[in-house]
Amino acid sequence: MGPFLIKHLGMPLSPRRWTKADCDTVIEKITKRIPCWTSRSLSYAGRLQLIHSVMFSMHTYWSSLFILPKGVIKSIEAICRNFLWGHKAEYVKAPPVAWDFVCKPKKASRLGIINCGIWNHAAIAKHIWYIANEKACLWVKWVHGIYVGDQGIRTVENKENIAWY
Hey, CA dihedral for 146, 150, 152, 156, is it positive or negative? Predict the structure, then answer.
């Protein structure tokens, strides 16, 4: 498929399941930020703050709207890891600490970086929570009117014409 023709709030819309190539935009946006920062003069704490505030906020925006492919999540984590330990988006040297160890909470004396894959699932589950609790949002009313109806969220059958998400 070629480039997306429709965008809403800066997000390309697609009627099919997202592929890694479709999500190149988010990876490019994150990678473009790194050369702008003077990473040579930043401490580990400064780079960690940029990961938390800028890189993760871009990921959060995308992951709250779509289920991102695992390859995209791995790429985002690799960019963050490489920036934290090596000052660049590309792999420079082996990290001194395993990424899973770094992604533990601050209460456990770790860096508190959130696992992007788990965050993506939680952000999408929020939408299911809204549908199940019948929040007073327009799109929830639409979902109930078209798909759920009177039967409840737990008994909805998967129909052929329902999109993958």
Answer: negative
